[in-house]
Amino acid sequence: MEIRKSRAVIFLLMLAYLLITVFVTSPSNTSWIVPKPKPFKLPFLTSQQSITPLTNTKHFLVSAFMDQRRKGFDVRIIGIFRRDSIHPLHCIFFCGGLFSETTPASFLSHFAHFGYPFGPVDVLCSIPESCKATHVTLLTKQNPVNISDQLWLPIRNRKTHNKETRMNFTVCISTLFGDYNNVLQFTQSLEMYKLLGVNRVVIYNNSCGPELTRLLNGYSQEGFVEIIQWPINKYLNSSRGWKVQVDKGDLQYFGQIVTLNECIYRSMERSRYVLLNDIDEIIMPYQHDNLNSMMEALQPKYSKVAEFLLESHVFPNKYFEPSGRFHLPQWSNVSGTNILEHIYREDPDRKIYHPHKMIVQPKLVEQTSVHEVLRKFGGRYIVPWELCRFIHIHVARRTSLKLEQLNEDKRLWDFQEKLIPNVDKALKRAGLLTEN
């Protein structure tokens, strides 16, 4: 009996020693006692793409946003729909652990489809009561069998406790395509945006050249550029223009209208103003040093304006500044246009339709096209061209004008002392600058 007790005591002592050894030498001396909780796994697949095919339809979903500006609706889904094949759909939400009941989807088509078979469509959904929705998808049947087989979209612009610093200016560049590789002008434009007070540039990239890819990666890493991959050709035959009779395809100009609207909603809760323009255009204040001071001057009188319309003035790229002072040797092997060499400006022909470009207040915009807002919750203001206009380095529009009929405009030169070294730094970072 005593031997049994002794053996039991020895066993308990050895077990205690073993437990103490494990506890002391464990990398985390409590992890063996209290197991770490496993990360929560969603019971469905979340789309990781910018374009998501909608099951059992000819349509595509792009993104979803909280938007309660229209009475009775909570969520707006931006989509690309086959316009002759829009049938009833049903919204369903994931409510932090449970699937909601379905609610009927409403459709708000865009006028700017340009006659193409596919066009932008907004789908409006109501969230059921007591549902704290984080994700949404659309169903063709009100009571489907396999909900988890659907691809779901995260709902952006939800109110959270994490307050992101609100920016003043975001530039939206609709689509890069055709292996675009105008590296020098792109760099100069991005650096000009910085000097003018822009906080972020959002770019939808269908395709661009290898040098421009390296350049954009640097800007993306520093947080100035947000790149949205836009593989629209994987799903549809996009046109290269907007005239359906001439530019054949399924969708206008690589989905330009879709990306502009997506960018407005993406920026709605984080940027006070959004600039809608092409990469070869630079918005330029002529009576202020930067965009912040210009908009501060306009804001007291025009706080309820949704769209500020600005003229775009072409600087024909066939005419060069004669002295060659900005034909810099370090840029000689960099592909693209040097904007500092173009100082001759056309006056637009105001006797005919002259399209504008825009600065918008995103919270007052519902739907936009390229040159005007289609649906809005505010007014419009045409900014005097003497105050601000777009510098557009481009092929001449008024081809009958001779050089002596153009205006000399050296506004870009006012920024050259900071612009040139900043461009050099960005090109060097991308390994594109020639060392002298």
Could you explain how this protein is built, in words?
GO terms for molecular function: glycosyltransferase activity. With 436 residues, the protein is of the alpha/beta class. The chain has two domains: 45-156, no CATH class; 167-430, Alpha-Beta Complex (Spore Coat Polysaccharide Biosynthesis Protein SpsA, Chain A). Helix content is 19%, strand content 28%. It contains six helices and 23 strands. It has helices at residues 2-25, 183-196, 210-222, 256-267, 291-298, 416-429, and strands at residues 45-46, 52-53, 60-66, 75-82, 90-94, 103-104, 106-109, 118-125, 135-139, 151-156, 167-176, 200-205, 225-229, 271-276, 281-285, 305-316, 344-345, 356-360, 365-368, 373-376, 379-382, 388-394, 407-408. The strands form four sheets. Strands 1, 2, 3, 4, 5, 6, 7, 8, 9 and 10 form a ten-stranded mixed beta sheet that branches. Strands 11, 12, 13, 14, 15, 16, 18, 21 and 22 form a nine-stranded mixed beta sheet that branches. Strands 17-23 form a two-stranded antiparallel ribbon. A hairpin with an 8-residue loop joins strand 5 (90-94) and strand 6 (103-104). Helix 2 (183-196) packs across helix 6. The longest helix has 24 residues, at 2-25. The chain is globular. The termini are far apart. Residues 1-34 have low confidence and may be disordered.
